[in-house]
Amino acid sequence: xxxxxxxxxxxxxxxxxxxxxxxxxxxxxxxxxxxxxxxxxxxxxxxxxxxxxxxxxxxxxxxxxxxxxxxxxxxxxxxxxxxxxxxxxxxxxxxxxxxxxxxxxxxxxxxxxxxxxxxxxxxxxxxxxxxxxxxxxxxxxxxxxxxxxxxxxxxxxxxxxxxxxxxxxxxxxxxxxxxxxxxxxxxxxxxxxxxxxxxxxxxxxxxxxxxxxxxxxxxxxxxxxxxxxxxxxxxxxxxxxxxxxxxxxxxxxxxxxxxxxxxxxxxxxxxxxxxxxxxxxxxxxxxxxxxxxxxxxxxxxxxxxxxxxxxxxxxxxxxxxxxxxxxxxxxxxxxxxxxxxxxxxxxxxxxxxxxxxxxxxxxxxxxxxxxxxxxxxxxxxxxxxxxxxxxxxxxxxxxxxxxxxxxxxxxxxxxxxxxxxxxxxxxxxxxxxxxxxxxxxxxxxxxxxxxxxxxxxxxxxxxxxxxxxxxxxxxxxxxxxxxxxxxxxxxxx
Length: 493
Hints:
The protein has 493 residues and is an all-alpha fold. It folds into two domains: 412 residues, no CATH class; 77 residues, no CATH class. It is globular. Helix 3 runs antiparallel to helix 5 and helix 13 crosses helix 14.
């Protein structure tokens, strides 16, 4: 069938909405974080992030790897409402069971360990997000590539939470109120998603679960999730134990910027995952090969300049989002900027190749090795270099996982000319460094300074991409010019 399920949705439209969603996920923290970092101070901010990070560990456990598994299996049966409803009901019921166990364990740990008592109220507030994430069933909308609904909904609730924050959060003691506001926004969004999900399938609690079918792949993905969680979350947890709330507060600025940039760049990967699964199911190896090669070259074109910009603009970024009290975060931010490449491409290798082609064991093995490396090095580096040691550990762990995945995945994209694209991107990034060097001592309003530096860097970078004939940039430019021409003078022949 020529017009297959793969072609039903425009990947360009999906990418646009996913990008908007990710950009909004960047913009709103850029509005809120500068405010709360100054209101709360370094130590209070560290306390807030420590509690949030601690709960997120249990939230990861509660998910059981079901979102990734659900995306893959849901994509296979998304045109059969009855089969999809049965699948979603079973996975929803499994999730609610794991949620109950995770929350009970979380509360017991908080009660039993004295070190957690000062964070207890924050932990209880954040814990509400655990079942709400399951109820939201966000991965169902990925299956149907319905990014417009989730994007608009997310923006609405982000606006409401920002307005509420500015109205009510005024002093250091409002930290609990701020946590409550963020949780309420998440709950409201997820409840609406659950109601809207009836458009695609009928979800209900059931005791008739095919454990034999689901548990093996779920446990494989869950093990990978746990391993990834170890090298994504334990650095902050161990930093709080072997350092202080102050160190966590400083490190939170670096990780905030790192995660914001990463989430924005992963917008494309999120769109590509469903498309990659569908191509794998159809067995169209040639088309899949071409699709993956273009995707990875596109990702590289945008990742490398973001790495360079994040590293060389670290002081400006810190001053903007947090203030001069957090300038110590500069070194850890530079280290984490180097980690971006490995983290993003590890995720892409996993979501667009390994999982669609049933290579979950490779994902698991890589994640376990990365977790072991991360855990061991945290115990070595954090006591010596505190937040910089935590960042260095993240970099080494992400690089390790990337190399493990690459060894297996390179066979799936034979047309990839990664070296050429990388050299083109590095040439463009050299232009970025030159621009930032020219403006290094420019004393002007911080917002204007950042905007000018970003705009000038972007112009120089993309001009150099055109000069060096980066195929991705040239194709994007050609498509843009064609659309402009169509809007102005009619259709292009």
